[in-house]
């Protein structure tokens, strides 16, 4: 197996800026540069590359670093490349040894990078970040606590070898699900039919022009006027909306029939369309079938409903939230451990997150080597099957007790502890709020499913990096206070020694 390693990072004082001043060692990009394990992150990225085909790729550190800068600065692809070409600290973060104003690569390469890196690749990177954070948290503990923990681990290993019992459960695992909203306009039946009609007219015009045949009658001017008059009406009645849907369905049906006639008479006509245009044609045909079925049955829901002809993979997700009963995007099931998040499931179809509790707990054990001591979730996860699974593995949970009230009423202290544990589940809600407000998780601008998945996973990866940098800063402050405290103690001991010697 080839061992991929990034080039050795120069000292900050050897970085050539072309100016008289040197880089500031306390800059955030300089501190973050020394914190990340670039070799391990690069090895994960190289798994997605072909070793037999294609030219030599760009340095993996530059690619991963550019993605981190993109999400941290909340810039688009072009804005990220421009910012890197203007900022020497960002170039130092990417591993360059001198400042260069030229673009590091073409912005369109970001699309290919997002196609290569999916949720699985970002999850492997997240595991590296979490393991690094756990070692930092252990170093932050006092020496006596670390000795006790080592002794407890040895005792647990001895018990495990003798009695074949599992190790003691440790830590807390929080779980919840949310929707990463796609950046699309709110879908309506009338709007979707109008967009499909206009797109079908574009495809029909291209086929007629390329084949040098006359355009069939489409009534596009009349259809456009009817759509505008209906869309301007603010208070639309159900009868008016249903009439408008019926009109747009008839116009779209006529366009699709004209396209079918052209393809029947000219079998090679499909070669005149690109892959994207042919995909549009298939999507419009399926959308027409769905809208016609809902119109005839007088309903507003159907399986695998298309809500955007430009992003047909997006589905409506019913959440039941106040103000937003339906969201449009990918549903993600997230687990949180000590402030670090992992996306366990990601799907554009709606799913019940409670069915994946076992998988999430087992992923926690695979990462840490032991089960969590406490699982903090809402009631949708607390099915009888999940409760039985947690009980068998000695895992406590914050779900409400089933059945009759217990004869022994818990004390006020136990009630307070349980309430605190239930309230701690708000940490994962705060993580969702951070991702949506600060990093636009509710405005995913990727167009295809692969890049959307990578976009969402990249946001959580960057948030984990920020959490790691904060933990590292806290550890530095703790070590600094310990050193100052030791110096203060030694000073008092020296002064006491002088006092006794003078006496």
Write the layout of secondary structure elements.
Layout: H1 28-35, H2 38-46, H3 60-73, H4 77-86, H5 88-93, H6 109-116, H7 119-140, H8 143-163, E1 172-181, H9 189-211, H10 220-232, H11 238-265, H12 275-297, E2 315-318, E3 326-337, E4 340-347, H13 357-368, E5 374-376, H14 384-392, E6 396-397, H15 412-423, H16 426-437, H17 449-502
Parallel strand pairs: 1-5, 5-6
Antiparallel strand pairs: 1-3, 2-3, 3-4
Helix pairs in contact: 2-7, 3-4, 3-17, 6-17, 7-17, 9-11, 9-12, 10-11, 11-12
Describe the 3D structure.
This protein has 503 residues and is α/β, with parallel strands linked by helices. It contains 17 helices and 6 strands. Strands 1, 2, 3, 4, 5 and 6 form a 6-stranded mixed sheet that branches. Helix 11 packs across helix 12. The radius of gyration is 30 Å and the shape is flat.
Which characteristics define this entry?
503 residues, alpha/beta, 6-stranded mixed sheet, 17 helices, flat, 8% strand
Q: Roughly how many Å apart are the termini?
A: 71 Å
Query: Which class of secondary structure composition applies to the elements?
Result: alpha/beta
Order of helices and strands: HHHHHHHHEHHHHEEEHEHEHHH
Helix content: 55-70%
Question: Largest sheet, if any?
Answer: 6 strands, mixed
Q: Percent of residues in beta strands?
A: 5-15%
The low-confidence runs, each spanning 5 or more residues with pLDDT under 50, are 157-165
The whole-angstrom Rg is 30 Å
Number of strands: 6
Mean pLDDT, rounded to whole units?
Answer: 84
Tell the overall outline: flat
State the helix count. 17
Summarize the structure.
The chain has helices at about 30-35, 40-45, 60-75, 75-85, 90-95, 110-115, 120-140, 145-165, 190-210, 220-230, 240-265, 275-295, 355-370, 385-390, 410-425, 425-435, 450-500; strands spanning about 170-180, 315-320, 325-335, 340-345, 375, 395. The chain is an alpha/beta fold.
């Amino acid at each position: 197996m080839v061992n991929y390693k990034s080039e050795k990072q120069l000292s900050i004082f050897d970085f050539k800026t072309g100016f008289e001043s040197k880089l500031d060692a306390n800059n955030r990009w300089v501190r973050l540069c020394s914190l990340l394990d670039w070799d391990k992150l690069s090895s994960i990225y190289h798994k997605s590359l072909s070793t037999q085909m294609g030219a030599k790729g760009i340095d993996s550190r530059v690619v991963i670093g550019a993605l981190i800068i993109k999400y941290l600065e909340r810039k688009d692809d072009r804005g990220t490349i421009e910012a890197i070409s203007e900022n020497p600290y960002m170039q130092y973060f990417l591993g360059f040894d001198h400042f260069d104003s030229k673009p590091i690569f073409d912005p369109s390469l970001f699309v290919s990078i997002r196609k290569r890196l999916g949720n699985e690749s970002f999850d492997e990177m997240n595991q590296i970040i979490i393991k690094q954070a756990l070692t930092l948290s252990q170093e932050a503990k006092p020496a006596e606590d670390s000795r006790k923990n080592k002794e407890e681990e040895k005792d647990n290993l001895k018990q495990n070898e003798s009695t074949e019992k599992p190790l003691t459960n440790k830590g807390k695992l929080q779980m919840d699900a949310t929707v990463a909203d796609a950046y699309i306009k709110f879908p309506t039946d009338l709007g979707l039919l109008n967009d499909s009609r206009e797109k079908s007219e574009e495809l029909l015009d291209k086929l007629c022009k390329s084949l040098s045949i006359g355009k069939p009658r489409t009534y596009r001017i009349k259809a456009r006027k009817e759509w505008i008059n209906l869309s301007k009406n603010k208070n639309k009645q159900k009868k008016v909306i249903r009439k408008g849907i019926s009109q747009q369905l008839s116009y779209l049906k006529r366009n699709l029939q004209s396209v079918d006639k052209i393809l029947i008479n000219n079998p090679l006509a499909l070669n005149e369309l690109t892959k994207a245009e042919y995909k549009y044609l298939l999507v419009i045909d399926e959308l027409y079938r769905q809208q016609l079925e809902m119109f005839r049955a007088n309903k507003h829901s159907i399986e695998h409903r298309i809500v955007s002809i430009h992003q047909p993979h997006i589905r409506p997700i019913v959440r039941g939230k106040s103000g937003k009963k339906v969201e449009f995007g990918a549903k993600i099931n997230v687990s949180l451990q000590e402030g670090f998040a992992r996306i366990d499931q990601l799907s554009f179809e709606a799913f019940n997150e409670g069915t994946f509790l076992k998988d999430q707990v087992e992923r926690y054990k695979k990462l840490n080597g032991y089960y969590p001591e406490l699982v903090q979730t809402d009631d949708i996860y607390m099915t009888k099957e999940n409760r039985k699974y947690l009980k068998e593995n000695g895992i406590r949970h914050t779900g409400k007790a089933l059945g009759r009230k217990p004869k022994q009423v818990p004390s006020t202290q136990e009630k307070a502890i349980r309430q605190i544990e239930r309230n701690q589940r708000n940490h994962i809600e705060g993580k969702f709020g951070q991702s949506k407000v600060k990093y636009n998780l509710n405005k995913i601008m990727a167009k295809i499913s692969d890049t959307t998945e990578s976009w969402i996973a990249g946001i959580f990866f960057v948030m984990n990096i920020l959490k790691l940098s904060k933990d590292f800063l806290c550890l530095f402050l703790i070590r600094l206070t310990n050193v100052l405290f030791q110096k203060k103690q030694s000073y008092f001991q020296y002064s006491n020694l002088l006092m006794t010697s003078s006496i």
